Amino acid sequence: MKIQSFSRYEFKYILTNQLAKKIESEVSYFMKYDGYVDPEMGNRYIVRSLYFENDSFVNFNEKVDGIKKRKKFRLRTYSRAKSKDSSFFLEEKGRVNERTYKNRTSIKHSDLAGIFSIKNHIKDILIRYPDNDVINGFIFDTIRKSLKPMILIDYKRRPYINNNGLLFRATFDSDIKSCLSNSLYPEIHNKSWKECRAGYTVLEIKFERSIPPWFHRIIQCYNLRRISISKMVVGMETCCPIEDI
Length: 245
Fold this sequence. Notes:
The protein is an alpha+beta fold. The chain has an eight-stranded antiparallel barrel, surrounded by four helices. The model has no long low-confidence stretch (mean pLDDT 92).
Protein backbone atom coordinates (compact mmCIF):
# COMPACT_ATOMS: atom_id res chain seq x y z
CA MET A 1 0.00 0.00 0.00
CA LYS A 2 1.25 3.48 -0.88
CA ILE A 3 2.14 5.78 2.03
CA GLN A 4 0.95 9.39 1.98
CA SER A 5 3.17 11.84 3.85
CA PHE A 6 2.44 15.41 4.95
CA SER A 7 4.71 17.89 6.74
CA ARG A 8 3.44 21.35 7.67
CA TYR A 9 2.72 23.90 10.37
CA GLU A 10 -0.60 23.66 12.19
CA PHE A 11 -2.19 26.49 14.17
CA LYS A 12 -5.40 25.95 16.12
CA TYR A 13 -8.02 28.29 17.56
CA ILE A 14 -11.16 27.66 19.62
CA LEU A 15 -14.07 29.86 18.54
CA THR A 16 -17.63 30.23 19.67
CA ASN A 17 -19.96 28.93 16.98
CA GLN A 18 -21.16 32.47 16.37
CA LEU A 19 -17.62 33.79 15.85
CA ALA A 20 -16.77 30.80 13.67
CA LYS A 21 -19.60 31.73 11.29
CA LYS A 22 -18.27 35.29 10.95
CA ILE A 23 -14.71 34.15 10.27
CA GLU A 24 -15.84 31.44 7.87
CA SER A 25 -17.81 34.01 5.91
CA GLU A 26 -14.61 36.00 5.36
CA VAL A 27 -12.52 32.90 4.62
CA SER A 28 -14.96 31.87 1.88
CA TYR A 29 -14.01 34.95 -0.16
CA PHE A 30 -10.44 33.71 -0.53
CA MET A 31 -10.78 29.93 -0.40
CA LYS A 32 -12.92 27.12 -1.81
CA TYR A 33 -14.24 23.83 -0.43
CA ASP A 34 -12.05 20.82 -0.95
CA GLY A 35 -13.31 18.08 -3.23
CA TYR A 36 -14.75 15.82 -0.51
CA VAL A 37 -17.54 17.88 1.02
CA ASP A 38 -21.11 16.59 1.03
CA PRO A 39 -23.69 19.25 0.05
CA GLU A 40 -26.37 17.32 1.95
CA MET A 41 -24.33 17.82 5.13
CA GLY A 42 -23.97 21.55 4.62
CA ASN A 43 -20.71 21.13 2.69
CA ARG A 44 -19.10 19.16 5.49
CA TYR A 45 -18.06 15.58 6.04
CA ILE A 46 -17.65 13.23 8.97
CA VAL A 47 -14.25 12.53 10.49
CA ARG A 48 -13.96 9.57 12.86
CA SER A 49 -10.67 8.62 14.53
CA LEU A 50 -9.83 5.79 16.91
CA TYR A 51 -6.73 6.59 18.96
CA PHE A 52 -4.35 4.05 20.45
CA GLU A 53 -3.22 4.58 24.04
CA ASN A 54 -1.93 2.52 26.96
CA ASP A 55 -2.93 2.24 30.61
CA SER A 56 -0.28 4.82 31.58
CA PHE A 57 -1.74 7.34 29.09
CA VAL A 58 1.67 7.94 27.52
CA ASN A 59 0.38 9.85 24.47
CA PHE A 60 -1.94 11.97 26.59
CA ASN A 61 0.86 12.93 28.97
CA GLU A 62 3.36 13.71 26.21
CA LYS A 63 0.88 16.16 24.70
CA VAL A 64 -0.08 17.74 28.04
CA ASP A 65 3.59 18.04 29.03
CA GLY A 66 4.41 19.73 25.73
CA ILE A 67 7.03 17.21 24.60
CA LYS A 68 8.53 18.70 21.42
CA LYS A 69 9.13 15.37 19.68
CA ARG A 70 6.22 12.99 19.92
CA LYS A 71 3.89 10.81 17.86
CA LYS A 72 0.70 8.79 18.14
CA PHE A 73 -1.24 6.35 16.01
CA ARG A 74 -4.89 6.37 15.01
CA LEU A 75 -7.29 4.67 12.65
CA ARG A 76 -9.32 7.13 10.60
CA THR A 77 -12.42 6.84 8.46
CA TYR A 78 -14.99 9.26 7.05
CA SER A 79 -18.23 7.47 7.75
CA ARG A 80 -20.43 6.70 10.74
CA ALA A 81 -21.91 3.67 9.00
CA LYS A 82 -20.04 0.38 8.92
CA SER A 83 -19.41 -0.47 5.28
CA LYS A 84 -16.85 -2.38 3.26
CA ASP A 85 -16.93 0.50 0.77
CA SER A 86 -15.64 3.03 3.32
CA SER A 87 -12.02 4.17 3.28
CA PHE A 88 -9.81 3.33 6.27
CA PHE A 89 -6.38 4.69 7.08
CA LEU A 90 -3.77 3.91 9.71
CA GLU A 91 -2.07 7.21 10.52
CA GLU A 92 1.08 8.17 12.36
CA LYS A 93 0.62 11.76 13.56
CA GLY A 94 3.65 13.47 15.10
CA ARG A 95 5.45 16.66 15.90
CA VAL A 96 9.09 17.69 15.73
CA ASN A 97 9.54 21.06 17.43
CA GLU A 98 7.03 23.44 15.76
CA ARG A 99 6.30 21.37 12.67
CA THR A 100 3.79 18.54 12.47
CA TYR A 101 3.82 15.55 10.18
CA LYS A 102 1.40 12.80 9.19
CA ASN A 103 2.14 9.51 7.47
CA ARG A 104 -0.76 7.29 6.55
CA THR A 105 -1.50 4.08 4.71
CA SER A 106 -4.78 2.64 3.50
CA ILE A 107 -6.12 -0.38 5.41
CA LYS A 108 -8.50 -2.94 3.94
CA HIS A 109 -11.79 -3.45 5.73
CA SER A 110 -10.96 -7.14 6.19
CA ASP A 111 -7.77 -6.22 8.07
CA LEU A 112 -9.32 -3.90 10.66
CA ALA A 113 -9.73 -6.67 13.24
CA GLY A 114 -6.04 -7.49 12.87
CA ILE A 115 -5.08 -3.85 13.47
CA PHE A 116 -7.34 -3.67 16.54
CA SER A 117 -5.53 -6.64 18.09
CA ILE A 118 -2.18 -6.41 16.33
CA LYS A 119 -0.29 -8.53 18.87
CA ASN A 120 -2.25 -11.58 17.71
CA HIS A 121 -1.96 -10.80 13.99
CA ILE A 122 1.57 -9.47 13.48
CA LYS A 123 2.63 -12.08 10.94
CA ASP A 124 -0.54 -11.80 8.87
CA ILE A 125 -0.44 -8.00 8.77
CA LEU A 126 3.27 -7.92 7.84
CA ILE A 127 2.59 -10.30 4.97
CA ARG A 128 -0.34 -8.21 3.69
CA TYR A 129 1.55 -4.91 4.04
CA PRO A 130 5.21 -5.68 3.22
CA ASP A 131 7.86 -2.98 3.62
CA ASN A 132 5.30 -0.53 4.96
CA ASP A 133 6.95 1.96 7.34
CA VAL A 134 3.65 3.04 8.93
CA ILE A 135 2.66 -0.55 9.68
CA ASN A 136 6.15 -1.39 10.95
CA GLY A 137 6.23 1.66 13.21
CA PHE A 138 2.75 0.93 14.51
CA ILE A 139 3.66 -2.67 15.40
CA PHE A 140 6.90 -1.56 17.08
CA ASP A 141 5.19 1.12 19.19
CA THR A 142 2.24 -1.13 20.04
CA ILE A 143 4.53 -3.83 21.41
CA ARG A 144 6.94 -1.41 23.10
CA LYS A 145 4.27 0.76 24.74
CA SER A 146 1.46 -1.83 25.09
CA LEU A 147 -0.88 0.33 23.04
CA LYS A 148 -4.51 -0.56 22.43
CA PRO A 149 -7.49 1.17 20.80
CA MET A 150 -9.02 3.36 23.50
CA ILE A 151 -10.68 6.65 22.58
CA LEU A 152 -13.00 7.34 19.64
CA ILE A 153 -13.41 10.90 18.36
CA ASP A 154 -16.15 11.96 15.95
CA TYR A 155 -16.85 15.39 14.45
CA LYS A 156 -18.10 17.30 11.42
CA ARG A 157 -15.57 19.19 9.30
CA ARG A 158 -16.01 21.95 6.75
CA PRO A 159 -12.71 22.25 4.87
CA TYR A 160 -11.32 25.08 2.74
CA ILE A 161 -8.25 25.13 0.51
CA ASN A 162 -6.35 27.99 -1.06
CA ASN A 163 -7.52 29.07 -4.49
CA ASN A 164 -3.94 29.52 -5.64
CA GLY A 165 -0.37 29.80 -4.40
CA LEU A 166 1.27 27.82 -1.62
CA LEU A 167 -0.60 25.29 0.50
CA PHE A 168 -2.99 26.91 2.94
CA ARG A 169 -5.84 24.89 4.38
CA ALA A 170 -8.48 25.93 6.91
CA THR A 171 -10.90 23.52 8.57
CA PHE A 172 -13.84 24.27 10.85
CA ASP A 173 -14.53 21.29 13.15
CA SER A 174 -17.77 21.20 15.14
CA ASP A 175 -20.07 18.81 16.99
CA ILE A 176 -17.06 17.05 18.49
CA LYS A 177 -17.96 13.92 20.45
CA SER A 178 -15.97 11.16 22.11
CA CYS A 179 -16.42 7.79 23.77
CA LEU A 180 -14.24 5.03 25.12
CA SER A 181 -14.10 2.30 22.50
CA ASN A 182 -11.91 -0.44 21.06
CA SER A 183 -13.40 -0.21 17.55
CA LEU A 184 -14.43 2.34 14.94
CA TYR A 185 -18.08 1.30 15.10
CA PRO A 186 -18.92 0.42 18.70
CA GLU A 187 -22.30 -1.06 19.46
CA ILE A 188 -23.13 1.36 22.24
CA HIS A 189 -26.08 3.51 23.15
CA ASN A 190 -26.03 7.14 22.04
CA LYS A 191 -25.75 8.23 25.69
CA SER A 192 -22.24 6.77 25.76
CA TRP A 193 -21.10 9.57 23.44
CA LYS A 194 -20.07 12.73 25.26
CA GLU A 195 -19.96 16.22 23.78
CA CYS A 196 -16.57 17.91 23.76
CA ARG A 197 -16.41 21.72 23.86
CA ALA A 198 -20.14 22.08 23.22
CA GLY A 199 -21.00 25.39 21.56
CA TYR A 200 -17.49 25.82 20.17
CA THR A 201 -15.74 25.21 16.86
CA VAL A 202 -12.08 24.31 16.43
CA LEU A 203 -10.45 26.22 13.59
CA GLU A 204 -7.27 24.63 12.26
CA ILE A 205 -5.02 26.21 9.65
CA LYS A 206 -2.30 24.19 7.94
CA PHE A 207 0.46 25.68 5.81
CA GLU A 208 3.94 24.94 4.50
CA ARG A 209 5.72 28.28 4.81
CA SER A 210 3.59 31.28 5.68
CA ILE A 211 0.09 32.54 6.42
CA PRO A 212 -1.54 34.69 3.68
CA PRO A 213 -1.76 38.42 4.49
CA TRP A 214 -5.57 38.35 4.35
CA PHE A 215 -5.68 35.74 7.12
CA HIS A 216 -3.27 37.80 9.22
CA ARG A 217 -5.88 40.56 8.98
CA ILE A 218 -8.54 38.15 10.30
CA ILE A 219 -6.27 37.19 13.20
CA GLN A 220 -5.78 40.83 14.12
CA CYS A 221 -9.39 41.87 13.54
CA TYR A 222 -10.82 39.17 15.81
CA ASN A 223 -7.86 39.06 18.21
CA LEU A 224 -7.42 35.33 17.67
CA ARG A 225 -5.06 33.50 20.01
CA ARG A 226 -3.39 30.25 19.10
CA ILE A 227 -3.91 27.40 21.54
CA SER A 228 -2.45 23.96 21.96
CA ILE A 229 -5.37 21.57 21.68
CA SER A 230 -5.66 17.91 20.74
CA LYS A 231 -9.01 16.27 20.08
CA MET A 232 -7.58 13.07 21.53
CA VAL A 233 -6.68 14.87 24.77
CA VAL A 234 -10.05 16.63 24.93
CA GLY A 235 -11.79 13.30 24.40
CA MET A 236 -9.75 11.63 27.15
CA GLU A 237 -10.48 14.47 29.57
CA THR A 238 -14.19 14.23 28.76
CA CYS A 239 -14.50 10.47 29.03
CA CYS A 240 -12.03 9.70 31.84
CA PRO A 241 -11.91 11.11 35.39
CA ILE A 242 -8.99 13.53 35.56
CA GLU A 243 -7.61 11.92 38.71
CA ASP A 244 -7.24 8.62 36.86
CA ILE A 245 -5.00 10.15 34.17
